[in-house]
Design a protein that fits this description.
By secondary structure, the chain is mostly beta strands. The protein has strands at about 15, 25-30, 35-40, 45-50, 60-65, 65-70, 70-75, 80, 85-90, 95-100. It has a 6-stranded antiparallel β-sheet with strand order 6-3-2-1-7-8, with no helix packed on it. It has a two-stranded antiparallel ribbon with strand order 4-5. Strand 7 (about 70-75) and strand 8 (about 80) form a beta hairpin. The protein is elongated and about 55 Å long. The two termini are about 30 Å apart. The model has no long low-confidence stretch (mean pLDDT about 90).
């Protein structure tokens, strides 16, 4: 697989648009460009059986699993909807991502 550019970035708030966690929002905590996947905080929770290691006890642990990048969209806090991101150039030459509907900034808080 070849890594591609992404419409979401690490630390950004996204909304899931497909799957078991549809319409839930969360913050991107990891981005895996080679797999085109992301891990979103508190979403797509799976249970894993873990063996005991040293002082760490074994048992059934819950953790976040990867979501495909096509199943999420950036979330605009002003619109309260998932939106497409547009890129714009500011007067000082900096590039910024904005909401395609209202023009609100999508940069990380």
């Amino acid at each position: 697989m070849q890594a591609t550019k992404s419409h979401v970035i690490k630390g950004e708030t996204v909304m899931v648009i497909a799957g078991k966690d549809k319409n839930k929002t969360g913050k991107v905590i990891q981005f895996m460009p080679k797999k085109n996947c992301i891990i979103v905080e508190g979403l797509n929770i799976v249970k894993r059986h873990v063996k005991a290691r040293g002082n760490e006890p074994g048992g059934i642990k819950e953790k976040e699993a990867a979501l495909h990048i096509s199943n999420v969209m950036p979330f605009c806090s002003k619109c309260a909807k998932p939106v497409r991101a547009k890129k714009t150039v500011l007067e000082n030459g900096d590039k910024m991502r904005i909401c395609g509907k209202c023009g609100n900034s999508l940069e990380k808080e």
